[in-house]
Write a structure and sequence with these properties.
single chain; elongated; 56 residues; alpha+beta; two-stranded antiparallel sheet
Length: 56
């Protein structure tokens, strides 16, 4: 933790900053997984909406 002291004796604490890294573009396999997850989520939300209309 990084600490500074001003002229009045007040302490200021600063958190240590994490090391910066750049994100990598997802691979083809990861992209396919994202498409599959999106499709499952779309079907799930559509089913919930249709169920809500059927119940009401």
């Amino acid at each position: 933790m990084y600490t500074t002291v001003n002229e009045d004796g007040i302490l200021n604490n600063y958190a240590t900053e994490p090391q910066i890294y750049y994100a990598e573009y997802p691979t083809i396999w990861e992209q396919r997984q994202y498409v599959l997850q999106g499709a499952v989520a779309t079907v799930f939300v559509t089913a919930l909406v249709l169920f809500a209309f059927a119940v009401s």
